[in-house]
Amino acid sequence: MALRPKRIIAQTIKELTQLGRDRLTLTLALGLPIVLLLLFGFAVSLKVNQINIAIQDLALTPTSREYIATFERTSKFHIVEQGATVNVPRLLDQGRIAAGLIIPPKFSRDLRRTQRKAQVQLLIDGTDANTANIVRGYASATNTEFVQNRQAAGSTKRETSPVNLQARLWYNPGLKTLQYIGPGALAITVALFPPLLAGLATAREREQSTILQVYASSLTGAEYLLGKAAAFWLVGMAEVLIVHVEAWLFFGIWFVGDPTPMILGSILYIVCGVLWGIFLGSNANTQSAVIQSVSFTAFLLSLQLSGFAYPVSNIPIGIRWISEIIPARHYILLTRDAYVRGVGWISGWSPVLALLVLASFFFFLAWRKLQKMQVET
Q1: Are 122 and 101 in contact (CB under 8 A)?
Q2: Whole-angstrom Cα distance, residue 309 to residue 302?
Q3: How many domains would you assign to the chain?
Q4: Model confidence over 97-106: pLDDT tens digits?
Q5: What are phi and psi of 167, to 5 degrees?
């Protein structure tokens, strides 16, 4: 049977016309590649700069201040706190620093002696094995720079290093990559399907016009929203339970501290995803548009900007703020605390609060959209 080019061209024009009428799908089809390339080009970075560090200076001498100044001069470190009263372990527990330097009281005296080396302790957050090794390398290089500067100034004639930098890993002492990737993967795994299912169900009701029956009933917008969200929240919580049990059975990942912040965070995390999916579904004319929008906003952004693969501090500051409105960014902090750090509510209260704020915001967006649709109908 011979092909008729005119019919093929006519069918092509018809498909392009229908695609042009669905502006959301067309925008996603043409805009997503551009946005993704920008994300991969600018957001993905394995370099570690401006590492947050705290310095407890128990010596309080000109020599110890000179040692601290060496860390201040480098672009690799950002000193969050310094002084004799700095509590380095507590700052590590709170997640405010990636490393803490402790200068002992006899630092200057030991530096002048020829019989022994001056000792300095470096506590490193070992949650991220890659970052921990980089921090240790940067600190060692800075310590060497201090020694070389003193030798060049004639302060010491010894050729061996007079400062022994002892690095100790705080959490994850074995620097197991699975301990860092595993808890983060738990958040990414359940980031897609709860919003996708909720969004598809909402868009399907619009496509089939069955949502008109809801508007004609006595259900209020809030009741309809809460009822729909509750159904998919239960599905999402089942997914959370399954992946956490799977992580324990197959990868040996288990709690190292108080898991209650993560449990509460799991509830709010799924609420965020479901409400976001309903909001996207109520704005989409087709289910295909929901699939594209959810895949980008709920999955790809979570994968790129949540701190799963690399620290959020590596993201350029111009787009770093986006990570704050991504629920996975906060949930990953809770999973890594529960499975690696184990400090509980000391650092867990802020991610839980952030998820609560995001859940409330997404509920407001979805509720307003449904109210507007009901009035227009």
Answers
A1: yes
A2: 10
A3: 2
A4: 889 999 999 8
A5: -95, 130
Per-residue model confidence (pLDDT) at position 159: 46
Q: Does residue 306 form part of some domain?
A: yes
Of 116, 102, 93, 105, which is closest to residue 167 (Cα–Cα)?
102
Q: Where in the sequence is the domain holding 189, given as residue range(s)?
A: 177-376
69 shares its domain with 142: yes
Based on the domain organization, do 108 and 224 belong to the same domain?
no
Last residue of a domain, one of 136, 170, 204: 170
- Percent of the chain beyond pLDDT 70? 81
Q: Are residues 164 and 184 in the same domain?
A: no
d(CA 125, CA 136) in angstroms, rounded, equals: 10
Which phi-psi region, left, alpha or beta, contains residue 184 (left: φ > 0; alpha: ψ -120 to 50)?
A: alpha
Q: Where are the alpha helices (DSSP H) in the chain?
A: 5-21, 23-38, 62-73, 88-93, 107-112, 129-152, 177-189, 193-207, 211-216, 221-251, 260-283, 287-294, 301-305, 317-320, 327-336, 345-376
Q: What is the CATH number of the domain that holds 82?
A: 3.40.1710.10
Q: Could you report the per-residue pLDDT of 332-368, keeping only the tens digit for each?
A: 999 988 988 888 898 889 999 999 999 999 999 998 8
Classify strands 118-125 and 99-103 as parallel, antiparallel or unpaired: antiparallel
Summarize pLDDT for 214-243 with one digit per residue, the tens: 555 666 767 778 888 899 999 999 999 999
Give the global pTM.
0.77
What is the predicted pLDDT for the residue at 273?
Answer: 95
Query: Cα–Cα distance between 373 and 130 in angstroms, integer?
Result: 49
